[in-house]
Amino acid sequence: MKKINGIMMQYFEWYMECNQNLWNMVAENAEKLSEIGITALWLPPAYKGMAGKDDVGYGVYDLYDLGEFDQKGSIKTKYGSKDEYINCIETLKQAGIEVYADVVLNHKMGADMLQTIPATKVDWGDHYKELSNQEIVRVATKFTFPGRHHKYSDFEWNWTHFHGIDYDDKSKEHAIFKFRDKKWDDAVDEEFGNYDYLMGADIDFTNPEVVEECYKWAKWYIETTGVTGFRLDAVKHINASFYKDFIKRIRENISKNLFTVGEYWSTDKERLHRYITETEGEISLFDVPLHYNFFNASNDDNYDLATILNNTLMKENPNRAVTFVDNHDTQPGQSLQSFINNWFKLPAYSIILLRNEGYPCVFYGDFYGIPHDEIKPIYNLDTLIKLRKEKAYGNQTDYFDNRNYIGWTREGDDEHLKSGLAVLISNAGDGEKRMYIGEKFAGCQFIDSLSNCEDIITIDEQGFGVFKVKGKSVSVWVEI
């Protein structure tokens, strides 16, 4: 489903100031992105959030309002109008770029009416532990979408479509309230006893009306917008069997080649493997353990680089691994802040972009910078993207045999002119490593495409070269 040597780009960051014009900006950049090697864009949530034009998109209010209706104080979303969104997608597809929609089904926020119902308070640290007898609460669970007037769907949400919520308007108390006759879903993450509940009004995926409405929405969304993939938010909080059946049904009836990647935020690779098994391989996952390996490597001068792929999806299930360096949740100031230190950004990107495992995702904030925090674009990241497109082909040989210096080579193929490369990373001082790149390169000269090393390296008759790297950096050697 993903293209050979494809590269996804997450085209937003949390503090982006796009003046309700992102969809137009993306359309204008489509050809340029395609030229450097981007083959797919993950766009931010396109539907109306509870904060209207100021909502990044995860405070989901109305999945059917793509910037078309006067709701929550605006017609356009933070990123633009429905027409601009659809035009943006069409422009990207004409440029050869797939488009993945950010799908947030876990919860709803910003209800239109309150409802008075019985509920039981549960413990924040253990959602199975009840702290009260059943009590009467007044909660924001009635969604009628008055600004949309039932266009596209006449479905209205009420408390029976949810498991619980985290605020009682009657007592003004912030707590988790589990509704009468409800129980948390199975096949979710075990953190906090059961991590079904995350935020807002938590959707009950055991309710047949909910399941059917989600499918009807997905059908409408795909047919209306033309997106070719889904990035699924917060999957560890949603019953795995729901997504298994949901995606399978979509592929059978709507979009056979729909690409799907889930955000299961856990450093425990076994939980990721289990989720892939539970969903019968219908969903790829972001390689969160790899991100934290990068984070630790960037902060620890004694980190053993030879272990950087250990306990990752990239190493253990590469066909279901979507690899990334950072994203909108790990950037400074966000809930999962774990931003990779600048010196290690390029080495980390070389690992996800120039190897043959996984499907890499480039972060907007790394490519364009994050003005909110005075973070500049990563220098030479565009070079690595081009190198993946032009050079990163052929047999791969690894040299993960030293705690401070690791490398690998790609021997190239006959389809891509002068393809093949050698990568060497250091987290200590200057270094060098003798690596095999192929007898066909005997006598050929190689230079560092990142210009960190000025040497010219000649490959010997056996196909080996002694490749070099400067301290705490990466060099990517390509044929002159």
Q: How many strands?
A: 24
SS element count, helices: 10
Taking the alpha carbons of the first and last residues, their distance comes to 34 Å
Q: What spatial order of strands do you see in the largest sheet?
A: 1-2-5-12-13-14-15-16
Which CATH architecture of the largest domain is right?
A: Alpha-Beta Barrel
> pLDDT below 50 for ≥5 consecutive residues: which ranges?
none
Overall average residue pLDDT: 97
The percentage of residues in β strands lies in: 15-25%
CATH T-level topology of the largest domain: TIM Barrel
- What about the largest sheet? 8 strands, parallel, barrel
CATH homologous superfamily classification of the largest domain: Glycosidases
Assign the structural class, choosing from mainly alpha, mainly beta, alpha/beta, alpha+beta, or little secondary structure. alpha/beta
